[in-house]
Amino acid sequence: MIFHIETLMLVSVSLNEIYSALTGGPCVFITSRSADGVDDAMANAWNMLHGMAPAVVTASLMTDHTTTKNILATGVFGISVPGTSLQKKLLASGCCHGWEVGDKFVKCSLEKLEGEALPVPLVGGALAHLECRLTEPDLLARAGILVGEPVAARVDERYWENGLFTCEGRPESTMHSAGEFSFFTRGPVRGW
To answer: Would you call the peptide bond into 54 cis, given omega within 30 degrees of 0 as the criterion?
Structure first.
């Protein structure tokens, strides 16, 4: 199934292959919706895979933030992997709090893409999207460690090649944290 978002064409990908979109720990948007329907998107640089086939994702969140509260209330969240064209919006979403601004999609002028399998917003224009179920609510509530199981995944078809996510030779790259307000882009990938 193909989806059109501006000039992007998203294709559904296997949950056994989506791990490649998060390999190397790109900065991502973690998205959620409150129980009363207010959407939230936060920047996250502390994320990783902790399973591959199928993927299991882990991220570090603050226990008192809106995103954490939304995920605990609904049991679902999204991950959108932005390319460099979303750099300023990713930074903006990480520099304000949902409890202060309300809907961060509106505040940060983020295009909204609805989840297909779960009631979560995703960030339109991102290169890859995962819709996830929370699997360890007690761990999230106690320590801010988010563990989720993707139930649906889509990727911009230009960044999907031979069952893997790639930025090499593409118009955009993923961003990776190099400390506060600094990042580097994904460089060429070489075999071991």
So the answer is: yes
The pTM of the full predicted model, rounded to 2 decimals, is 0.89
Contacts of 172 (CB under 8 A, 6+ apart): 83, 84, 85, 127
State the architecture of 2-168 in CATH terms. Answer: Roll (2.30)
Is the distance from CB of 81 to CB of 22 less than 8 angstroms? yes
* Pair of tokens at residue 181: 């307000």
The torsion region of residue 130 among left (phi > 0), alpha (psi -120 to 50) and beta comes to beta
**What was the pLDDT predicted at 5?**
42
Which tokens belong to 103?
């809907």
81, 154, 165, 187 from 1: Cα distances, Å? 20, 10, 18, 30
